[in-house]
Structure prediction request, 379 residues.
Amino acid sequence: MKIGRNDPCPCGSGKKYKKCCGSKQEMDFSLPEALRTGTQLDEYMTLVQGIALYAQSLIQFDVDGKELKKAGDNFEKEFLPGTSLGVPNSLYMSWLHFDLRFGKTQQTVCERFLDLVIMRKLDEPGPTLLRSMRDSYAAFYQVRAVDDSWIVFEELGTGKTWHVHRVNEPEQVETTKGDVWYVRFVGTQADAYIFTAPYVFPSESRSDFASAVKRQMQVFAETVKKDLPEPELFRASCKVSVPFWARYFIEGEGYEEEQDEGDIMPEMRNTDDEVIRFCKIFFVINVRQGLEEQLSLIRSFDYDERNKMWIWAKRGKVVRSLETTALGTVSIKRKYLVAETNSKERALRLITKLKKALKEYVSFEKMDVRDLDSMPPID
Prediction:
């Protein structure tokens, strides 16, 4: 990037370059030799230095700087990034730069960085790499194949396949087929790089995390109350859920034992302010004929033809898509009627509703409740 002396300083101070960073020293974002990999990952890491500098300038000079600083300080206090009891620095910094929306514009640091006038002078592949980082998200993936140059991942929640370059990092050397990773990639599905230190889980945890990701998307859709195409919904839900998963990772590492007695770990809640619990309810089907018709007659139940299930929904006084909140789902699976909700309170209400409406058709058998404490241990 060519920076003219009279151009706005890329640090974001609003001053001319010659009267800001240019008056002190040339801005050198070159990556230290010890950190170089000889791949395009080096270019990503070089650009990140500019984004980090810009984030600091926002904190110092921008009207929304106090909000950005407070959010960062709160994350550091709660999740202790870079310490033996905390999350990796890479998880924190990528969340701060690429996921956190703040201020009047509700843009991320990276989105604001891309909007700078000076960015128009940035040569390719710089803009493309910045957009890749802007759109990146941390998610769960299962290792499908490993060879000398690549690791092939399946994205839980979407089924997408990612081909990721192997760089000589310990977790990439030791990984095996079937492992489940929580990690952020940058790049395309066919040409990606690992961008954060991963959390690695055994293959047996796949179903638990796949279910959790599904709930994550459902909770996000309920909370923001807006329609998004499924790929955007998935990406957005991953971005806002980083603190939720950071809390889980901390608990798995014994974080609660380090808290003062008065400290209370915040809990993720749904739109009814109920603590998130993943509830699955089983009814034995006694009479199969006419069951579908009876389900469709239940007030507040809508049939989803695509997914072959009934949606239990709550609507406002004016029925519009933005005022509809999904409370749970009901589906028929062989000899069972299976209902799912994201809180114990909703589950109990749904049991009562189904017993009353389907008393001749089904019999309640059991309810399984899952929360963070029941999630699989970190490998």
In short: Residues 253-266, 316-324, 375-379 have pLDDT under 50 and may be disordered. DSSP finds twelve helices and twelve strands in the chain. The first helix runs from residue 21 to 24.
